[in-house]
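Morning F.,

Quick status update on the modeling queue. The single chain you submitted on Monday has been processed. Sequence for confirmation:
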Amino acid sequence: MERNRPGGGLYVLAFSVALAVYAGSAGGVVLHPNPTPGGPELEVPAGQRPSDDVVGRWSSSASVVALSPRHIITTAHGGGGVGSSVTIGGQSYQVGWYYRHPTADLRVAVLTDLGEEPDLQDYVDIYRGSDEDTQTFVLGGYGVGRGDPLQTFYNDQWVTYGYEWGEGGNDTLRWGSNRIDPSPGFDLFAVWDGPGIAAAVPYEAIPADHDSGAGWFLDDGGEWKLAGLTQAVERTGESWYRNSGNPELPDPDEMYAVRVSTNAYWVDMALDGPLAGDFNTDGTVNITDLGALASNWQASGPGVNWSDGDVNHDGKVNITDLGAVASNWKHEYAPPAAATMGGGQPVPEPGTLALLAVGAAALALRRRRKG
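Structure tokens below.
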């Protein structure tokens, strides 16, 4: 059965005029109340969802999902950077460095820990299929939940058409569910159906404040895999499932996520480690990367990142980083089985050495002009 949603392509227009907004900072999930008065909060039970330790918090600005013992993934618009705190699996870490997708709203970060290397015990693989549409997914996020009901007076009675978002910070993990709808023009798309709607799923949920980067998980043959990362919702501060003027009409709010499967190649590259010198992580080392390094030449400090031109993560952009650009000039990323990646340093050819000399001279000239 097709899901209830606005007809005539209105949701596409609504998004284009910014009625859809980025989900706020960290992770929240709004679920419908238990129909049994006084009953417990409804959420996807343990055993029907990923481990709680798979989902974490990037400071107070985004949710994250663990992809390896050291790597987490989140949306790029969530804020923060090198040195930001990440809490996952009950432990706190710092972002050592991160890779930002050149076009999609994604970033993969490498965690560091004072005293010992992080070793996350629970993490997931990414979903690589192209059949996400119509599948039921599990949504997990930290932060606010359901607040006070939104009601309108209709046919001589008060009728609930949605809920305000609750108050508080990003300290509570909630698990809900929904179904991915076909969506022209968006990565992943779903709507928040109301109670009693035939298309609704058990534990029907929608992201709320603090949910950027929260995972959309699919059960792939008994293994939970990451299919999407929450990016935006239709409105802020509240969530609707009925029309406020005529609550007899369904009017489910929309939610959007970055589709991971279409970016699987980039995620694999980020986990493996991009080519040394590929500062914009587009899979090749070229003039764009040299320009990034030139723009940050001689920069130093704890906030200096890979994207600034810091190949060896020493907090400086200098001749060592320029040498990496020269060594991998015009090289392209290939999976580890096909080529040695993750910062390998092939012997520079004569033309590349010339580039290094010219690049060094140009950077020196730029530095003198700035001085």
